């Protein structure tokens, strides 16, 4: 992720990652009380553009707010700093990882001190490009009454790690997690869509991370006349889908081959997922031909 010439932003200064000292007594390490984001910048025909930068930084600030972490940077400052960081790293296409860590405090009340680190590196599609073989996880997504599932809190990701370890150890590519009622929720770090009888479905908000990519995909569907509905569905319904795909900033749009070794019947190349994969690339590269709006 970094080398001698890498630059990170840390508490007001640009530094080499090796010069960054993170507090070993800090609450983020001990208790998982930190907040992060996953953002991408793309080299577009209009120059390097951080895709949906404001939405990502709003979600970062929301996470700090719910955890009571004092964090005073504005969205505008964060966006400006991130563009500066990309230039310092000579990166045009990049994955960007802002992280707020809470200060040293062994009590279980949020520390009054916060640190900001922003890192970036060149990173291809996180889950690759080939169709994924997915396993239903024995781990459920956290109950939204036990935490803020819509915030990217560092500690929540132990759930994603358990699910991913389980799926990969069993020879699968990724995990699909259910919510506490047994409905399909999401992947460890991406949202899920299924196609059935010419329509797309994605779990409604409440028990999932409401992904920014998910939102973009739904907007593209609306523009392109692809029917899409937010609705809870069970794993049995999912296994009867014609096709499925995941969406996320790191993963972008990636198709599924199978769930628990049940192969999705529709040739992925002929599905909405394949079409959306292309349209999403056009969108992030600012090359999408907007459809004329009909009344
Ligand atoms: N679900 C989870 C659990 C995630 O960690 C992510 C990545 N933030 C997503 C979904 C996708 O969100 P986004 O499209 O905003 O990257």
From TrEMBL:
InterPro entries: Aminotrans_IV, Aminotrans_IV_CS, Aminotransferase-like, B_amino_transI, BCAT-like_C, BCAT-like_N, Class-IV_PLP-Dep_Aminotrnsfr. It catalyses: L-leucine + 2-oxoglutarate = 4-methyl-2-oxopentanoate + L-glutamate; L-isoleucine + 2-oxoglutarate = (S)-3-methyl-2-oxopentanoate + L-glutamate; L-valine + 2-oxoglutarate = 3-methyl-2-oxobutanoate + L-glutamate. Signal peptide: none annotated. Keywords: Amino-acid biosynthesis, Aminotransferase, Branched-chain amino acid biosynthesis, Pyridoxal phosphate, Transferase. GO terms for molecular function: L-isoleucine-2-oxoglutarate transaminase activity; L-leucine-2-oxoglutarate transaminase activity; L-valine-2-oxoglutarate transaminase activity. Its EC number is 2.6.1.42. Pathway: Amino-acid biosynthesis; L-isoleucine biosynthesis; L-isoleucine from 2-oxobutanoate: step 4/4; Amino-acid biosynthesis; L-valine biosynthesis; L-valine from pyruvate: step 4/4; Amino-acid biosynthesis; L-leucine biosynthesis; L-leucine from 3-methyl-2-oxobutanoate: step 4/4. Its cofactor is pyridoxal 5'-phosphate. One of its GO terms (biological process) is L-valine biosynthetic process. SUPFAM superfamilies: D-aminoacid aminotransferase-like PLP-dependent enzymes. It is an enzyme of class 2 (transferase). Belongs to the class-IV pyridoxal-phosphate-dependent aminotransferase family. NCBIfam families: ilvE_I (TIGR01122), PRK06606.1 (NF005146). Acts on leucine, isoleucine and valine. This is Branched-chain-amino-acid aminotransferase. The lineage of its organism: Bacteria, Pseudomonadati, Bacteroidota, Flavobacteriia, Flavobacteriales. The gene is ilvE.
């Amino acid at each position: 992720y970094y080398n001698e010439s890498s630059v990170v932003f840390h508490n007001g200064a640009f530094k080499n990652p090796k010069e960054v000292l993170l507090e070993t007594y800090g609450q983020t390490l001990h208790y998982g009380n930190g907040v992060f984001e996953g953002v991408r910048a793309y080299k577009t025909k209009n120059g390097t553009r951080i895709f949906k930068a404001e939405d990502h930084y709003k979600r970062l600030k929301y996470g700090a707010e719910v955890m009571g972490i004092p964090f005073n940077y504005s969205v505008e400052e964060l966006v400006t700093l991130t563009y500066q960081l990309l230039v310092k790293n000579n990166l045009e296409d990049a994955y960007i990882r802002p992280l707020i860590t809470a200060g040293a405090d062994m009590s279980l009340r949020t520390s009054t001190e916060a640190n900001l680190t922003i890192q970036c590196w060149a990173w291809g599609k996180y889950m690759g490009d080939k169709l994924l073989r997915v396993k239903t996880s024995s781990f459920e997504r956290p109950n939204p009454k036990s935490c803020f599932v819509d915030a990217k809190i560092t500690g929540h990701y132990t759930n994603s790690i358990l699910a991913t370890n389980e799926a990969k150890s069993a020879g699968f590519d990724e995990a699909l997690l259910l919510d506490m009622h047994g409905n399909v929720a999401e992947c460890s770090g991406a949202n899920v869509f299924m196609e059935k009888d010419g329509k797309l479905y994605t779990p409604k908000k409440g028990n999932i991370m409401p992904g920014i990519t998910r939102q973009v995909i739904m907007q593209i569907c609306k523009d392109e006349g692809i029917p899409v509905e937010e609705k809870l569905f069970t794993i049995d319904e999912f296994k009867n889908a014609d096709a499925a795909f995941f969406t996320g900033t790191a993963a972008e749009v990636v198709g599924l081959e199978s769930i628990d070794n049940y192969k999705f019947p529709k040739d992925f190349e002929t599905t909405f997922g394949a079409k959306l994969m292309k349209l999403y690339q056009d969108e992030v590269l600012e090359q999408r031909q907007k459809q004329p709006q009909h009344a």
